[in-house]
Amino acid sequence: MYEQFLPMVLSHLKTHGEDARFRFTGHSLGGSLSVLLNLMLLIRGVVPMSSLLSVTTFGSPCIMCGGDQLLRKLGLPKSHIQAVMMHRDVVPRAFACNYPDHVAEVLKRLNSSFRNHPCLNFQKLLYGTMGQLLILQPDEKVSPPHPLLPSGSGLYIFHCVEQSGCKFEAEPPRTVQVQAAERAFLNSPHPLETLSDPGAYGSQGSISRDHDAINYLRALNFVLRQQTKHLRRLHREQRRQIWWPLVSTDSSMSTHRPSKVDIQRERKMSEDATNLH
Length: 277
Known about the structure:
- With about 280 residues, this protein is α/β, with parallel strands linked by helices.
- About 50% of the residues lie in helices and about 10% in strands.
- The termini are far apart.
């Protein structure tokens, strides 16, 4: 695939020069290939860093062990890779979940390269998350909410709120708390639990429901519409807070009528002023 894309990339660079920009994205395996293409173009010196925009994947399996270390080595921020996954999608969890010891032993016997696999030996998983992990939760009518997420639809990201209480590891630069939260989420539900349910298969099963590209698009559109409505309400409220005091002040001034007591007092003051002169 790299060789297929390379002529188009070179042609775009030749046409636009320093203004050339490349954005890679994809769903499922297409998202994983987008990450590889992006990084290969940079590592091989074909495309400068300034021309490579961030990669956004949807429901894509993890493909690297130590991916955050690679990003840091290349001088790229974590936000360069934005991995969006549906809250119950089994595909992104497939390689990033905990592998039982007996499963790990089977893998090592089937393929000798797994015997020295650092993630499998030390973290009991094949590949870990890379960059930013964003969790997409659709409306409850579409899919049951995840027990580790707030109720309702939304797009969530794990981060440490209080920096003073966060313990940073030297390698990679990700907090221990965030790592633990991501691991807990990726193992709930565990892929084996989902795959063991006969009702999860087929066009109406949970596997297709939570991984289908159309459902990703619908969930994102729903979240964006809800966020747009929320921002509009905030904007109206801000305008109301700015203009209402002015309107109410002008209204009170325009509706004020002097009383008989005020008129008599003014006449008295006018007469006193005349007598003084």
